[in-house]
Write a structure and sequence with these properties.
The protein is built from 43 helices and nine strands. By secondary structure, the protein is mainly alpha-helical. Among the domains are: 108 residues, Phosphorylase Kinase, domain 1; 151 residues, Transferase(Phosphotransferase), domain 1, CATH 1.10.510; 151 residues, Alpha Horseshoe (Serine Threonine Protein Phosphatase 5, Tetratricopeptide repeat); 116 residues, Alpha Horseshoe (Serine Threonine Protein Phosphatase 5, Tetratricopeptide repeat), CATH 1.25.40. The strands form two sheets. It has a six-stranded antiparallel β-sheet with strand order 1-2-3-4-6-5, covered by helices on one side. A three-stranded antiparallel β-sheet has the order 7-8-9. Helix 28 packs antiparallel against helix 29. The longest helix is centred in the middle third of the chain and has 35 residues.
Length: 956
Amino acid sequence: MKCSKCHTDNPSDSKYCKKCAAPLFTSEDTHVSETRTFQAPIKDVNVGEIIADKYKLLEELGRGGMGAVYKAEQIKPLKRSVALKIIKLGMDTSQVVARFESERQALAVMDHPNIAKVFDAGATGTGRPYFVMELVRGVSLTEYCDKYKLTTRERLELFTSVCQAVQHAHQKGVIHRDLKPSNILVTVQKNEPVPKIIDFGIAKATELRLTERTLFTEQGQLMGTPEYMSPEQAEMSGLDVDTRTDIYSLGVMLYELLAGVLPFDPKTLRSAGFSEIQRIIRETEPPKASTRLSGLGDKQTTIAEHRKTDPGSLQRQLKGDLDWITMKALAKDRIHRYASASELATDIERYLRNEPIMAGPPSPVYRLKKYIRRHKVGVAAAAVVILAILIGVAGTTVGLLRAIRAEKKAVEEANTAQQVSDFLVRLFEVSNPGEARGNTITAREILSKGAGEIEQGLKDQPLTRASLMETIGTVYRKLGLYKDAEPLLKESLKIRENLLGSKDARVADSLYSLALLHDNQGKFKEAKELTQRSLEIWESELGPTHPKIAKGLHEQGLLHYKDGKFKEAETIFERALEIREKALGSNHPDVAESLFSLGVVNYIQSRFDESEYFYKRALEIRETVLGPDHPDVAQSLNSLAALYHWLRRYDEAESLYNRSLAIRKKTLGQIHPEVAGTLDNIGILYHYKGNLVEAEKYYKEALEIRKKSLGENHPDVGASYFGIASLYHGMGRYEEAAQAYEQAIKILEISLGEEHLELPPVMHNLALLYSEMGRNDEAEALHKRGLKIREKGWGPKHVGVTQSLRDLGYFYTTTGRYTEAEPLFRRALSLVEKEWGPDHIRVAEALRYLGQMFSLKGENKEAEQHLRRALDICKKESEPDSEVVAGVCYYLAYLYHHNLNRFEEAEELYKQALTLQEENLGSDSTEVKEIIKEYANLLRQMDRKEEAAKLEFRIK
């Protein structure tokens, strides 16, 4: 049925238009519609009415610009009291509800004591959108604070709870968009005030693209809340709003809580025209809270009394730190705001503890004042001692020398800062229209100009040269331009060592930057030495809990990880994380880096639940703080995808890989090592899924990028050859596979050394290939060499040696040398039992190899004992490795089939193995074909020839 007012099509049984809520008329009422020249008033909802057959309205709690809120009783499917918000007329109901539905999943995962839950949404019979929320009995944040005369400290403590709730929502991907005191209700629980944020998700659902026509209603009432609206919201496009828009709104509320008034006078703001409102919000800088308070005249007294103080004391409280915190949150350019709500809360907590704040000026005098406030007793005692010292000439001399050194350093730093500023201005002149002359200027061209400018223009300022060389060298490194980075970083280190000595913290900075470069180049020994030196200097100069210590520890942990020392790496990562959380707060990018690395080290140790937790936590922080398109976000997505790939959650893995690839190409360019890394991983995924043509394409693309960006002999180039070799091996292209394996080994030996732990996996695969080609002597030599490398690198009792023991044991088993195989398998079993306990899935895997060997040897009792124990372990696992389970089932079935003639038991086990391997590897895999062949053979022996033929038909 078409609406006569807005011409929207509606269902035939509708009484009101779903878009504009005008009455609809059936064909029987045509005469009425033709003669009617006015719109009948829409009957409002009434207390007692039942909405959507499940919400009974009990009482009206209040009305606002968006509509009315009712207390309601939910009748079904469960009974509970709820708040039901009915949005006023004029909203497009279907779009509002659709937008809400798109938010529902994110809203559902929010679980925070300071956030009221949103349960449901829909439309009333008259076409008005409604939302069902947790019922919160309370008053607005500002009303509560004034009513109970909370002090400035008490207001700040309450406000930090609000910030942490907002942070929780942001981590779940939800932005409020309409934070204001009336959307934060304070209740009292156990004699403590508890703020609850309401309307999360509703602001987005009801968001309109506001124009001058829609900003104001026909009655001249303002839609939205401009007093709390961020500059980017004032643009009204809705296309560029992120979590920092909520930071701005929090800043306005903080301003109001502290000063008792808003940054902009509401009457003045609302009396302006639409374009003027936009201009004020976007361009006009509000006065500091202390300044605004001082201009309020007699009103100051009332505001101060609400905070249990006097006007003069309140102004002094606000000046300095609180003004800086508030104005940082209110920055017009969101880049200059706090990066997250938790960062804002952390700065407030620092203020409350009399610690230096991030928003404050980091001058020595400022930090000294903070130290004195925190340690009044100690400072007073120290002052007495210092006074006694100053009486003596020696003490005076020492103090004077220290003062001179401090002043000299301050002047040095100021001069360096000015020189850097002037240098950057000159550097970026290359991109102005006069110089560029219409040409596009790339980042690399700007860097190249900068590198030359340093040599020519800063000869008389060596420390400035060193600082800029380190900066540009680091940017080159991050762009994957390692050859360009190395001379700059080495020269920076040389200058600093010559001028500052070997123990200065700035020398440690250069050592660390060069260590990262050597790590990227695969020069791990050099990286390890430089990292250790930088750590020793930083610890001596800055103390053991400085964030730079965590940086050095993190790199040290990565290098231990690359050496296969996973437990040591994990311990180091945990220490770095502890330092970073204490120094930087729980939602800092450096904290995310430590969490990410813990995800990696848990993954390599098969602790997949822990790995997923750390990966997701790191991803949440990075997306919230850095934005969705940052390279670090791509790194998190790439590794989480690799985890899902290993867990055979292939669709999730592919989706995450593609997101990672898109971000890396956008931010790093098409030819970057990290782009190659994701391409390589996608190739591995397609390889596993059996899409070999696509796998080869991605492998080769990754290889070409790595050759161009890293050089022919980088370890990552070796890794690309390894992937291609494995692909050709599986495709039966043996000669090509052998060449690629051999090339991979050659590159790894050149770049990492002949005894590096990256070599054994490649050697194992090449040894298997040699066995298939009948080159058993070469295969045995490779297996033995791989074992020797791992024993030397990790020690003979390290669990990492297990794989090589099994590789060599399996080779001896397949060549009938059971006496040599048995001690290797038993040693491998002992290592995994010691590492993971007797009931771990890796123990089942070790037992499977031992059982298979005894089965082929004809020692059936021993074989069944080991394979049965392995199967029992698999049954105990809640989420066992299905490939291990399939292998255990297959070899136990083989034993029952060929050695013990227990055909019925063998059939069930073949079925289980076949189902699992088809899910794991696909129907065309070699493993699946082998199981089908044995299973069909069993069916023929059981005289079930037709079933056997049908089964065999699947592999023809």
